[in-house]
Fold these 2 entries.
Entry 1:
Amino acid sequence: METVMLQVGEKAFTGHVAMPTGDYKDKPRGCVVVLHEAFGVTPHIERVCADFSEQGYAVIAPAMLALAVGKPEGVVLRQNKDGLDEARRLIESTDKAELLALVKACVAWGKGQGLKVAVCGYCWGGSVAYASAAQLPEIDACVCYYGGQIHVICAEMQSQCPTVVHLAREDRYIPIEEALTALKAHDPRAEVHVFEADHGFNRDDGVTYDVGAAMVARRLTLDVFSQNLN
């Protein structure tokens, strides 16, 4: 993956970029902003970006933890308990307005190429994707994978574009019934899918990876992109 620098006020942060090749090299089908899980732009997230680019999309994944650690390239944390504890500390210290501005810079990067733009986030990034789609009218579609704060966010503000939410029935981190109730009450237009899986079912290097759920969610996600970006 290549990198670009994203300007947020007087600061600059790294965006990891994967561009399509072949038939879509000169004219991508659209742009996807991939918002990473708690651990940063991990090899798994890089594979997600590569997959979307292979489907014809220009992809950019901002290093969101950079906002907390003060380094443009951010940090990639170990995917264990210590890494998760550190991630929670960093996420808690991340300024939400600055984070929204970083997502907006990614959206502007895609719009600057004349493309429609979707946000697609996982775990922490899932919550960020939904909150961004509620506040940035320039976003054309939103996909939220098991966003831990989705039940809180959607009660305060709702996505303004076509939105798909992927949830896991056995999720240890998200109160599934609260999430379903909140989405039904506050954002009934959102397309919600519940998989018989655990949190992180899409992360192919994790212990809760569920290939069946991941593949179905991927197809539904690509459908959203195809319907709203092309």
Entry 2:
Amino acid sequence: MNIIFFGPQTSGKGTQTERLSEKLDIPVLRSGDILRNKKTTDDDEGREIASFIDVGKLIPDEMMNNIIKEELQKEAYKNGVIFDGYPRNLFQAKHLEEMINVDRAIFLDVPDALVLKRMAARRICSKCRAVYNLSSNPPKEEGKCNKCQGDLTQRSDDTEAAIAVRLNIYHNITEPLVNYYKEQGKLLHIDGTKSIEDVHEEILKHLTADA
């Protein structure tokens, strides 16, 4: 099964894709993690990627599509994949369809006011990239990851200025995917303001009904 998750920042994509991955035994392809890893490489591609990420802008479509195409060649995705962070616009969505069949597109809907509140409290593990929220999903030990004991940090692009840019990009470029997948009968619209467990159970209920 090939599943897409999309929604505004801090809508819970990281948490929900991880839970669904464990439940269905399907790997998650996190475009953000791939880009951040490439960003640390001291070459032209890494520096170009950094120039976009550090100010909250999207990677150009052609570059992003090529990166995803290369990633999908890996053996890990032969039985299915859960996308977190890709596609981000209609052009990317149509390009993805040339590579694989999308079974479900899950839209986690969260209003801007809650996005801003959640983002201020978001922390990422510096080692395994697990996502926490100091309010709704805090770590057991302050500043430490539950899984690997890595240090929890705030993302460099979680600044107020970068957040404003990313929300504007999301509404203008990514949100049209709602109607795109709705017209195909593949959209699953989920209220992302609910608890982590409630959102997870609602997603599973719909996917089970599809099977």
